[in-house]
Amino acid sequence: MTSHSILVVDDDRAVAGTIVDVLTVSGWRASAVHSAGDALEAVRREPPDLVVLDVNMPHISGFDIIGRLRKMVPGIPIIMLTARHTREDVVKGLRLGADDYIPKPFVFEEFVLRVAALIRRTYGSAESSDELRCGALSLNLTEVTAKVGDTTLSLSPTEFRLLAELMRHCDAVVTRDQLLERVWGIDFDASTNVIDTYISYLRKKLAAVGASPIATVRGFGFRLSPGAES
């Protein structure tokens, strides 16, 4: 397992320490801070490869610092880990830019698997092919780059993973449930428009460079065509 660095942000020192221990035993380099201010300073000083972020913290909530983290390090993946796990909270966290949302209490084995899955989706894995292609589109999973011909696309981590999933099934329909599970790690049919929001983002970026559009297949999901650039 690649030793990626993970920053745990939780004002409960006992919980944060336990999470750090679990992540360290699992092969990652993990450290903890206990306030939003310390989290921002830690990311500013040395950006980690992933942030595990509690919602309920004094003064500034985890929801409130997601945007700041994204501005500091646009590509940083974020897992929200919190006792607030109503559907509204999950949707809010995802809309603000979280990549996954894990409710407390949680099973450590599942937590480690979801951390590993997010790191794999973000940075690629040695077991998978380095490159995906669909028509003029190409993605390098190791370098985390996307191109249309020779033009590089500027994508957020979630946009990159969404496009990668569509490209893995080039010219085939990928269902909404499949995208929720494989891109966001949600294993239920959430009443959220997060998929439509990110599909819209991708469509605009692809259209700007003349790439083939993502088609909506009503009642099923979405299809990325390998057709020629327009």
Protein described:
By secondary structure, this protein is of the alpha/beta class. The protein folds into two domains: 119 residues, Rossmann fold, CATH 3.40.50.2300; 94 residues, Winged helix-like DNA-binding domain superfamily/Winged helix DNA-binding domain (Arc Repressor Mutant, subunit A). Helix content is 42%, strand content 21%. It is built from eight helices and twelve strands. Strands 2-1-3-4-5 form a five-stranded parallel sheet, with helices on both faces. Strand 8 and strand 9 form a beta hairpin. The relative contact order is 0.11.
Structure described in brief:
The chain is built from eight helices and twelve strands.
Features:
Rossmann fold, five-stranded parallel beta sheet, four-stranded antiparallel beta sheet, globular, Arc Repressor Mutant, subunit A, 230 residues, single chain, 2 domains
Secondary-structure map:
Layout: E1 5-9, H1 13-25, E2 29-33, H2 36-45, E3 50-53, H3 62-72, E4 78-82, H4 87-96, E5 100-103, H5 108-123, E6 131-134, E7 137-140, E8 145-148, E9 151-153, H6 157-168, E10 173-175, H7 176-184, H8 194-208, E11 214-217, E12 221-224
Parallel strand pairs: 1-2, 1-3, 3-4, 4-5
Antiparallel strand pairs: 6-7, 7-8, 8-9, 10-12, 11-12
